[in-house]
Amino acid sequence: MESLTPLLAILCPAIAAPLVLLSRNHPNIREGWTIAAGITMFALVLSMGPEVLKGDVIRFTMFHTMFKNIDFAFKVDAFGLIFAITTSSLWILVSLYSIGYMRSLKEHAQTRYFFAFCLAILGAIGVALSANLLTMFVFFEIITVSTYPLVIHEQTPEALGGGHKYFAYLMPAGAFFLFGVVATYYLTGSCDFTPGGIKALATTSPVAATVLFFCFLLGFMKAAWMPFHSWLPTAMVAPTPVSALLHAVAVVKAGVFGIVRMICYIFGVGLVDELGLWLILACIAGFTMIMGSFFAIAQDDIKKRLAYSTISQLSYVILGAAFLTKDGVMGAMLHIPFHAYMKITLFLCAGAILVGSGKRKISEMAGLGKTMPVTMLAFSIAAIGMAGLPPLCGFISKLYLCFGAWELHPPYGMIFLAVILTSSVLDIVYFFPIIHAAFFREPVDAERTNGGYVIKEAPTFMLVPLSITAAFSILFFIYPHTFYIIDLVQLAIVELFGGG
Amino acid sequence: MILPIDLILLFFLVIIAIAAVTVKDILAAVILTGAYSFVMANVWLQMGSSDVAFTEAAIGAGVSTALMVAAISRTTRWEK
Amino acid sequence: MTGGGAIPEKRMAGRDVIIETISRLILPFILLFGFYVMIGTEGTGGGFQGGTILAAGFILYITVFGAKRGREMIPESVNTFFESFGLYLYNGSGLLCIIFSMGAVQFLNYPGIWPVTDLVGVAGSRAWIIAFMVEVGIGLTVMAAFISQYFDLAWKDEEEEMVVRKE
Amino acid sequence: MKSLSSFGIVIVIILIGLSAYVIEDLPAFGDENSPANKYIRIFSMQSDAMGSMLESGVIPIELKNKIYEFGFNEENHYPTLEEGGYEIEWNEENGGWDVLIEEGEIYYNEPIKYYCIRVLGEELAVYRYNWPVRVIEWTEEETATPNAVTSGLADYRGFDTMGEETVILTGAIAVTMLLRRRGRL
Amino acid sequence: MMEWLAQHVLEKYNFWIAMTIILIGLYAAMAKGNLLKKLIGLSIFQTAMFLWFISLGDVGRDVMVTWGLKGGTPPIIWEKAVEEGYTYVNPLPNVLMLTGIVVSAATTAVALAIVIRIYQKYGTIEEDEILERELQEEVRYASG
Amino acid sequence: MLLAEQLPVIIVTVAMFCGFTILLAGYLNKKSAFWISLLANIVFFALSILTLRHVLAVGPIKYWQGGWRPPWGIEYVVDAMNAYLLVILFFIVILIEIYSKRNVEKEIEARKHPTFYALIQLMVAGLAGITVTGDLFNMFVWLEIASLTAYALIAVAGGRALRASYNYVIMGSIGAVFYIFGVGWIYAATGTLNMADMRILLPVVYDSRLVQMAFAFIVVGIMIKAYIFPLHFWQPDAYTYAPSSVSAMIASIHGKVMIYILIRLVYSVFTLDFIRYYIGLDLIICWVAAAGILAGSVFAIKQRNVKRMLAYSSVSQFGYILLGIGLSPLSPWGLVGVVAHILNHAVMKGCLFLAAGSFIHQEGKWDIRSFEGLSKRMPWASGAFAIAAISMIGIPPTAGFASKLFLILASLDAAQYPFVVILLLSGLLNLVYFWRVIDRMYFVRHEEPTEGGNEGTRRLPISMTAPMMVLAALCIILGIFWLTDIPMPLINQILSDLSTGGRL
Q1: How confident is the model at residue D84 (pLDDT cuts 50, 70, 90)?
Q2: Per-residue CA distances from A78 to A306, A484, A487 (Å)
Q3: Inter-chain residue contact F66 with C107, CB threshold 8 Å
């Protein structure tokens, strides 16, 4: 079905960006644009839900390109809509939070910040709604470039170093992705996302397909899988809302989204299985999960710890997709929004802690639960969810992943099940000390550690978003139909694997 | 038109070209270039290209040389 | 070519009467020959050669009498005018073809200038326009251009000498 | 720029090698019939008694088609060998038949020499006449200028000359711009 | 070998001599240090190229047979010429090379103007010294 | 003969006419020079658009100078490629002229303005002449006009530009003579100078060594003129020290037209068959191009002077065009890449040079290391620089991406996989040296000097900002334009006019 809605949704941040730039002298108007665009976009995205649930795929072709069979087009299918909903809903919250954060820390260059933020969201929503690899690549690169000013926001040499590292990883990744796009087109004459994969790819030589697969995998370096993860902790020099954006919404999520897209909609489950690539991918993902957790344990800086946690958690999605089973893919798809909500809560909390108490180190956080109850409560909720414990949405996705692992061939199934469970235990290991310190340890002398900084609860602008995300983390467990998420995932699974 | 004369002129050309390139006095080199152009004009006359010979004699041997001499008068005469 | 190129003004005192007289005598003949070569399409020669010979004549005059008196004889305005005027003639003869024939014939298709063609016929019009617009145009431009180049290359400034000496 | 001297020697050696390589195909000095001076042989075909047809003033249809296919056709803005649009005449000097075609230009309708057809044993060789032949033959008649260089310079290739004038003017302007210190410009 | 020499070197002596001068000029234009010498080399180079081009259009010389005693006549159409059996040379190379000569003269003039300006600035027209001066400036800039 | 068919020749000749007129008018009134030149170029731009429309609608224009049929006289052929280049030429020239008004007032003394604009106008005429001509020797004449003007325009900056210009004179003349030498060989082989005629006659003599020699000499000559990698050594100096507007014009237009000669010769005269089957040069061209792409980028990384960096970047980018030419016997996308990159690079490089020129104009800064805080003081110029730099890197919605995409597709299509790697690597190298500048301008923390009194008063004049902004906007618009199928008719027309055998 042709409809203008996807375009309108994408236009929201695209229009907001220049408006933000134009009203740079009026902070309230500037941030008003951001919020207004966010709400409009969310409404637009959500309005497509019922239509998509009916089984329709909403398409919008912007123009035909010079390449035969490739249009510059947007397509709203179930899987894309999940990511779109995640992105657009979190944009509003992160914007609200950013306002509080930036104003209370009196950061410089706020206009640049909000401008780049709009562009990053534009990229993310574009990736979510794009109908083919070329369109996706365009928005992918928009994300990469627009995130750079956010990463180096501090403009210290350290921040610039982080930014350069960020580029040093992600620009070559973009090159690999570009090669993948062109090679796919060259091999198959098409690069549309088709449920079940592009047919012509199955008939090309296995070597070409394998090379292509790894090109894409390197292209989705944004997913921070293990040998190529180190840009992500380095990029932690960015302000906290940016880290939240990087980790939960735009960048890394786009990476894993891309991997799932590639496996399920370009190669197709059958081909990946046939080539035996799933095992390599699953091994990479399993390795990343375990190692990421171990690295996280070693970190004292809360944002670094969260960063490694992200690396570990993203691999759940890759692993789920690599299983190529119905439940595995379902778990992977579910983990995208669920992890986004939980991780963003954690990051927002970390930012709130920084604003409220000026603390970054976990070892200094003793007793924070008393002075910042809301923040730490939200943090605890999200942390529990990350570990995959029941009253939170993380449980659902991990459960499906476990089912997915169970469906595998006998030896692998047990191994990967063990990996998932080990990783979950490690999650508890690295989150528990924080919660413990916050609630059950006596505060150290605040005067001595923090140079006269009065510890108080963070501003309301920041508290509201993080409470909302924490609440949603629970809500998704209780009522997974919120924002149609579970329905959409089921629909996507039906599209991919057929049958009920 | 006549081979021996032609060959002698061409041989001259080579000699003059080598001399013009190697001589240290640039004024001499310029005058040799003029001579080169003039011999060249003769060769062309031999080849029945009277118009080109005329032009080369007027422009190559005449005006170009004058311009070069003018330029030398404003720069230096000796090559190092 | 006394003094190599142009004679600086201060050396005008040591000028040679014989050279001056001979060059003054010979100049009209050089110019006449130049014009003959320029316009005569019957034999060898044409605009380039004629123009160059004219230029050479003037260059002789400039060399002998000094740049200042040369400038008096060929003022900058005249020189610049001829530089452009020659090309106006040539380029204009081409454009006139289009204009006269209202775009019916091509650039430089000389019979398109029908008033001339009516007078002297197709082949004649070509010959006439070649002789009196094209060759003259070429000649004037070449002459003026070479004279201008020679002036600029040869005319040594007093202050320039000072600068060079200082360095 | 010192490095350029060794570079120069390398180039000199390369050029000498190239010259030795290419010299074999260069037409001999003074060759009257070389492509540059007269005509270029475009193709040859089995004669098959076509010579007699040529003698009677008709170009055989195969030959006509071959010429057409070769690229000398309306598409390339060549005057074609339509019936009656061409003439054939024997040229003693070349030992072949000249094919004259009417160009149908605005001011000139005389047939112009385009091809030369010679019988060489069994073969029928077709040549295409080049620039000098036409200009030397027609300069007097078309431009009333006996000097072929002048007519070539000012008429047949008049645009070159105009550009070249502009080059001279450009040189003068450039020198003026770089050096002139007195006067208005 | 001798045959090859006779056929391709003696018979085409125009090309070889032109090539020799071309190489002399080219080498001078590239390798000489003096700017005016470069220019002289360039003008020799250009003119030698024109020589080769003009010799393409010459007619009537059969070096091996007639010792080159017969040659073309200037392409000025002349009734008597036909009667006496002259061949006109090819006018096209002449037309082209006329243009070439004029172009080379213009290039020379511009180059000379630049040389004079260089001399006014650096006080020398030796390339090495100019480069040295520039290097000194560079060092001066780098040291503040 | 329709007036539309007269348009290309009217453009060229009247452009020259304006050149002389500017000289005379400038003699009388110095201010008039600029305005005549600008007005004339605007008119020519309109005419060139009409030409392009006519060509696309009706087909190639074949124009016989003086009414002489092609093998006898000089023919001008305007097919889609020429008309397209003509439009680009005049468009960029107009923008750069608008920019140059104020810049030239500052960089060049007032008495030289009439001659300066006369030379600019003559250069444009020469470039237009190269573009439309269909005759090899006629091309040489225009080539010399364009080159002579370029020598003088570079030298007018004085100082080091003089030596740079002198090197250019020597190398350029050697290149021109090589070109004419090559023309001589091909004339000896075929006896014609007309390109279309030569295309017909050349198959007869493809085996002849003369043609190979001709090809070698012509290509080397054009390589010198178009500063393709191993023969580029005159170019960085010339670009660095020339007046800003001149280096912008030469970088964005002059080089393009020079490489157009190569394109025209390869496609329309020697034909791809010859390149591929008779001398087997296509892959060698590709490798030369690849070496140029990498070497240019590596050299650019080493530079501190922003204009010199851009100059080396040009060397690298010309490798892209040459790579497209080399790949085109194997894949039609190669030519698409060439066509796209000619326009894209003209726009991008023009924008970059204008921006760099305005940094020099306003603050006298050419050292990349002194660019801190430039984004605050000159937001528009540095914005334009950033957009164009991003486009050079090849980030998607910009023009550079499109050409990179086409070339990658071409090399895949031609099954020449190494070039894919080289193209992608080149994008990353571009990132290294352009991002360095962007970092300096935008992101490196920088203390504003406290005496901000005269900061606000000296702003870049609008006539300098506007052209940059137009070009920067075009960087993005073109990026989208090339992805759409709007240029398809143009590209198909170009493909069929250049007889590459087939359409997309």
Answers
A1: confident
A2: 29, 10, 9
A3: yes
